[in-house]
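Take a look at the protein record below with the fold in mind.
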Amino acid sequence: QQATLMGSPFTDLYRYLAYGTSAAVGCVACSFLLQERFSPLLASFLGNCAATTSIFAFSVAANNSCVYDAYWPVAPIPIAAYWLYLNPNPSIKAHVSFGLLAAWALRYLNLEDPSSKVDHEDWRYANIRSKVGAFYWPISFLSFHLTPTAVVFLALSPLYNLLSGRGAGPVRVDDKYSFAVSAAVAAGAIVLQSKADNELAKFRKSSQPGEVLERGVWAYSRHPNYFGEFLFWTGVLGMGLSGAGVQRWMCASVPVLFSFFRFASVPLMDERMLQRRPEYAATIRRVSAFVPWFRAGGQ
């Protein structure tokens, strides 16, 4: 199936070529760095950055940054699988953590991809392109490619010690129930995101022009999918803390993600919704922005 993006051919074959090439680039870079005695954690990060740079080249060739969009939720799986491979005797906790990560990634793979059906460029990319002109691609590389890669790797990093068995981190929670609670939080987040996705998909098929979704989980949070994403990675940090411990810098994942969603993604989406649906102003008054909460005025 072929679509045309910004005047350039963009097919499933092109997408597979982009991801396959980038995976090979990442593996070669990681192998080279390991030979140069880089730690597996640092080699994984830099290999991930090399793969992202390769994806960026395909984005430029297609003249569309959407080429990157399916990369960031898939990249954690081979990285985590490599860490698990390093462990000669992985624990049950390690297998549970990897299983939850795989379930999280599977949800993204099941999401409908508009770029495979119509001429499409994400509106956020199009807005930036229209404002910055010739500076678009440097900004795209730093903001739409490298930054998400770094943030997702930071969120994934708490699982490194648990999956790889390379030692214990200095920050650790030893309570015997903490891992089970953290795993339940991560699993619950996946359920929340899936429910939000399904409700949104049904709404799009039956909604009237200008109508705003305020049913199901969307009645208690304007962005339950964003909150579910934040909640999942909070569970990941908890599994890392109660599994084998984490390095201190890894604890930054939760505040970084909260700031990213609450103060960047949520305002941007709210502004977009207000431009397209003036009725959304009432939704803002009634419904919590991020964390699910009781509706204002009991409405």
In short: The first helix runs from residue 12 to 35. Residues 33 and 42 are 9 Å apart (CA to CA).
